[in-house]
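Morning F.,

Quick status update on the modeling queue. The single chain you submitted on Monday has been processed. Sequence for confirmation:
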Amino acid sequence: MKVTIITGISGAGKSSALKTLEDIDFLCADNIPPALIPQFVRICMASPNPPKNIALAADMRMGAMFESIYDAIEELKQMDVSLDIIFLDASDSTLVSRFTQTRRKHPLSGSGNILSGIFAERERLQRIKDMASYVLDTSTYTVRQLSAVLHQRYQEQSDLRMLLSVISFGYKRGIPIDADLVFDMRFLPNPFYIEKFRTSTGLDSKVSAYVLGFPEAQFFLDKACEMILHLSPFYLQQDKKQLTIGIGCTGGMHRSVALAEALYGRLCALHCRASVEHRDINLEQAAVRRRFSAK
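Structure tokens below.
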């Protein structure tokens, strides 16, 4: 198990860093009293499905209790974990600007000004800064740039690829609310009107062969792959890690399912990180069977 402690100067981006690690499947906890950190890790280790990565934010919001962080670190070093300490810092002028913009009070400023609080915090955190395995100055970083740096450090290269999530659906039940790109397959003939295909789905090899046998279906797959591969890097530049691609037809049972499966197959063949889901297939198949068994 890898345990990452995120600490540093207030206003340097610890909350943003924690959110980034949470996005890459770290189990994250913010502002746990440092004395409780080893016990928290033990609880995680003893769980039926223990997390591989834990990230914990600890800083001067805990006041005097923060001093117990050093005993906690020593205890963690005796446990069967890999310990990493990230210390986030920024220039005084940057920190003052950030606190001024957010109108938040520095935890050590008391009734004084922000700068005096920053000076006091630097002095109290120097020891843990010296212990840190990674000191990161965020003075010139946007939230997105900080996220990119942490992704590069903590996420495996294979996972840096965007997840292309293909989902088939039926328009009668609405477009998926999380869809980024939506394609309408109703330009293709509907297998519903062919009796031998009616109660089958696009997962059936014969239905799939029928749908994909139309030249326009192949044309769509060619152009959809081309567009998705072209656009994906631009989405990544905007810090979007997952692209949801909706493939729709009337009921979400025949055409959309066959094309979604085919698109998923092509993306996988191109070594993309992809997944496929058929939102309405079971509901629509059950509805069709009820409708025609009653006749």
